[in-house]
Amino acid sequence: MNQVVEPAGGLFRLSLKEALFIGFCAVFAVLIRMMFRLHLHISGHAMLVTAFFLLLARGSVCYRLGASFAGLLAGSASIFLGFAKTGPLQLVKYLAVALVIDLAGLLMPNLFRSYFWCALVGGCAGATKFFTVYLVNYLAGMDRAINLQSSLLEAAGAVLFGILGGLLVPVVIRRLKAYGVIS
To answer: Quick check: is 135 in a domain?
Structure first.
């Protein structure tokens, strides 16, 4: 008779393969943003890469906080590389997106098999940009009405690109499972 034994370390126990894949997703989220620093003049276009890799990190490993760890690593790397004007708030931006993804993954176990749910979670993850943009503008002393309008416009673009990033995830996860990269 086989007994299920909780591994020592509990919640924070990761296999080497899972830890490397989470690190891969975090590094590529930062590197692709760095390599393709395109000024498309479209609000939120960076959310495509962020939502895709954080959803991929959570969907490819059997770990509850996969997106949060990937977001923590990506945010730390972004601060280290000097991305954007926000400094340490860059970590909060990645973690807000990651926490939405992890919460959705906890509530819906089969999330990463469905295009609809991945797109919805990607859109919700993109909506976190509203709060971070509003906070930055508030700290800069912007008028409330203008801040609200500006933040809504930024968040609308981020939601659109978050949906597009979420739509890519089920295809990639199926391919990775078919080739035996993930189980």
So the answer is: yes
For residue 52, what is the domain's CATH number? 1.10.1760.20
Count of other CB atoms within 10 angstroms of residue 51: 35
For residue 126, what are the domain limits?
16-35+43-178
Q: For residue range 23-77, list pLDDT tens digits in order.
A: 999 999 999 888 777 677 777 888 999 999 999 999 998 888 999 999 999 999 9
User: Which tokens hold the place of 127?
Assistant: 């909506």
Full DSSP string of 133-153: HHHHHHHHT--HHHHHHHHHH
What are the pLDDT digits (tens) for 157-177? 999 999 999 999 999 999 999
Distance between CA atoms of 73 and 27, rounded to whole angstroms?
Answer: 8
- Alpha carbon distance 19, 42 (integer Å): 34
Name the domain count of the chain: 1
